[in-house]
């Protein structure tokens, strides 16, 4: 019979979430289950995920309504978060080794993400809205911050080959999808209006054309350690062939 374990990702500023686990399953498989259950871990490699038993220094479980929950969500390593990450769940352990009878009112697992390697920090994921005629589609690309935007043009062309033949990648006009307030585009309504060519929306979002000789790092930050769902659907590029 599966047991429900409540988990909290340190520093992700996302609420606790529950997962179901077989008592005889390994901690390694539990890591994959937890990764797939949290939007905060969407872009995090499973090898960077560390699991800890959520017991306080006095041996008591951390309650779902504990006052230090907000501190843990912020990932304050100087106080509660660091003191509670003592009992680590090893990959070859069984779930039953750590959890027999569990209380649904408690947090059972603290999830900590190791710092990314230099190579990972030099990577970022961009979501592009490719617009042509009265149609639009999304393209998701993993690129290096050192890549020039002209390299991104080529990558978008290759990704769109089966949908819309671009021809010369230099025909693609790239725009940083920020409005006058500096906010990234994440409104589905605005995206639909962009595809339709609504003038007021086009003027708002297609105002900052990107120099193809600049680099990705010049314009966009690298991927954060945690990536929430709101960030992953955010459109960082509007690509127009007109």
Mean pLDDT: 77
The radius of gyration computed from the alpha-carbon positions, rounded to a whole number of angstroms, is 22 Å
Could you give the distance between the termini?
Answer: 58 Å
**How many structural domains in the coordinates?**
2
Identify the overall geometry.
Answer: elongated
* CATH fold descriptor of the largest domain: Ubiquitin-like (UB roll)
Corresponding CATH superfamily of the largest domain: Phosphatidylinositol 3-kinase Catalytic Subunit, Chain A, domain 1
* Regions with little confidence, pLDDT below 50 for 5+ residues: 222-238
Number of helices: 9
- The number of E-state strands comes to 10
Helix content: 25-40%
CATH architecture of the largest domain: Roll
The biggest sheet, with number of strands, parallel, antiparallel or mixed sense and barrel status, is: 4 strands, mixed
Biggest sheet: strands side by side, in what order? 2-1-6-3
Classify the beta-strand content into a percent band: 15-25%
Going by helix content, strand content and strand pairing, the class is alpha+beta
* Secondary-structure element string: EEHEEHHEEHEEHEHHHHE
CATH class of the largest domain: Alpha Beta
């Amino acid at each position: 019979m599966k047991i429900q374990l409540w988990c909290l990702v340190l520093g992700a500023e996302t609420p606790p979430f529950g997962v179901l686990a077989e008592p005889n399953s390994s901690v390694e498989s539990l890591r994959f289950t937890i990764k797939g259950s949290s939007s905060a871990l969407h872009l995090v490699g499973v090898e960077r995920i560390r699991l800890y038993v959520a017991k306080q220094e006095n041996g008591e479980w951390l309650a779902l309504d504990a006052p230090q929950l907000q501190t843990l969500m912020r990932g304050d390593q100087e106080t509660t978060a660091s003191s509670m990450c003592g009992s680590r769940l090893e990959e070859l352990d069984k779930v039953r080794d750590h959890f027999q009878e569990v209380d649904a009112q408690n947090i059972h697992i603290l999830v900590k993400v190791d710092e990314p390697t230099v190579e990972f920090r030099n990577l970022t994921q961009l979501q592009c809205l490719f617009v042509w005629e009265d149609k639009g589609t999304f393209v998701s690309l993993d690129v290096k911050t050192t890549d020039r935007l002209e390299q991104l043009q080529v990558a978008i062309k290759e990704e769109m080959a089966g949908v819309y033949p671009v021809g010369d990648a230099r025909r693609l006009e790239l725009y940083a999808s920020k409005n006058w307030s500096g906010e990234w585009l994440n409104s589905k309504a605005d995206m639909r209006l962009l595809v339709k060519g609504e003038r007021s929306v086009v003027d708002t979002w297609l105002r900052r054309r990107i120099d193809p000789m600049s680099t990705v790092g010049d314009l966009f930050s690298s991927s954060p350690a945690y990536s929430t769902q709101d960030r992953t659907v955010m459109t960082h590029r509007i690509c127009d062939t007109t």
